[in-house]
Specification:
- This protein is an all-alpha fold.
- It has one domain.
- Helix content is 37%, strand content 0%.
- The protein contains five helices and no strands.
- The chain is globular and about 50 Å long.
- 22% of the residues are buried.
Length: 156
């Protein structure tokens, strides 16, 4: 193979790889996403490092590994159901053993009137306190649509 032929071959090979990278396949958004199949992988990629990794709520690590701002106060997103004693005791106090799972955080309440997940993952921008916090990348449009559809019917 001459140098010209080799150069052409390398050029064509580079172009083919470039086209393959540009035409990435995006899976369609399921009509009825489930936590286990569709939502938990999004949480694992973006949320669980703070919301439940190691069974705890953790301060957000910065991408360089240093500690970021304080830990969240609820939403253990690595699990669907609540664990521990989540009954409301005297004076509205809930036990320290209560770990609110993704279903609780997907359920609309009184304050806020929409779910925590809708508020922090879909409505607020990162500059307004939306999740994940900066400097982590935000959810993409497909991930937001999966969460939006799941919030309509948050099945396990």
């Amino acid at each position: 193979m001459s140098m010209t032929d080799a150069s052409r071959y390398l050029c064509l090979l580079s172009a083919a790889y470039g086209l393959a990278a540009c035409s990435s396949h995006t899976d369609p958004v399921p009509a009825m996403p489930s936590y286990a199949t569709d939502v938990e992988p999004i949480f694992a990629a973006h949320c669980i490092r703070c919301h439940g990794e190691g069974g705890t709520l953790n301060a957000a690590p910065n991408p360089d590994g240093t500690r970021g701002p304080g830990a969240p106060s609820l939403c253990y997103l690595q699990m669907y159901d609540d664990t521990g004693d989540c009954s409301v005791g005297d004076g509205g106090v809930i036990s320290d053993t209560c770990h609110r799972g993704a279903l609780f955080c997907a359920t609309p309440g009184i304050n806020p009137p929409v779910s925590y997940l809708e508020t922090y993952a879909l409505t607020l921008s990162q500059d307004e306190g939306g999740m994940p916090p900066r400097p982590w990348p935000p959810l993409d449009a497909r991930e937001k649509e999966v969460l939006s559809r799941w919030l309509q019917n948050p099945i396990p």
